[in-house]
Amino acid sequence: MDSIKRKKGKSRIAFPEDYCVVDIETTGLNPAENEIIEIAAVRYRRGRKDAVFSTLIKPEHSISSFITELTGIDNSMVCGAPCISEAIKDFYEFAGNDMLMGYNVNFDINFLYDNLLRCHGIILENDFIDVLRFARRVLPLLPDRRQTTVAAHYGISITGAHRAEKDCEICNACYLFLRDEMRSRNGE
User: Fold this and answer.
1) Which residues contact 150 (CB under 8 A, 6 or more apart)?
2) Of 108, 127, 142, 162, which cross-links 9 as Cys (Cβ 3.0–4.6 Å)?
3) What is the per-residue DSSP string for 113-151?
4) Tens digit of pLDDT for each residue in 120-157?
5) SS3 at position 107
C-alpha cells in the first residue's frame, strides 16, 4: 500500500454542526506493517451526540506488551472480536458521507483508507477536519499540542484516554473549545 497514492477526501478548515469524530488504536504507526485493533466513531448532529460505533478488532498478529500498556487492549480482549474486513465495512457504513473529524486525523484516515481499500476495494473519500490544526493555531504557547495536553489546558478529563471511543469524546470537547476561541478571535 505504501506505493499507492491515496485518493482520500480533502482536509478542511471548517466548523460543521454535523460530523463524525473518529479514532483508532493500532499495533504500531505504519499502515503497511501494523494493524487496527479498535475503531470508534461518534456521530454528532447539530453539535449533539447522536450515535456511537465502537468495536475491538482481532488482529492477525499478537498485540505487544507496549501497545497493551498504552491502550489497555490485550490479546484476550480481542480473541472474539470481528476481523478487520467486517469491522472496517461496519465503520464505513456507519460514517456514511459524514465529514470526519479527529485529532491528528491523517493517521487514522490513512489506516482506515488502506484497510477499506485492501479488504473491500472501496475508497474512503470523506472530507475531514484535523482538530490538531486548530490547536496549533489557537494554542502556540503550550509546550506541545498533544490531545491530552490541549484537553488538560481546557480542564477536560483525560481519564480513559488511548481507548478509541474516549479519545473521540476528548477530541470533540477540544474541538468545541478551539472552535469557540477561533470564532471569538474572528469576531463571529
Assistant:
1) 135, 139, 142, 174, 178
2) 127
3) HHHHHHHH-------EEEHHHHHHHH-TTSS---HHHHH
4) 999 999 999 999 999 999 999 999 999 999 999 999 99
5) helix
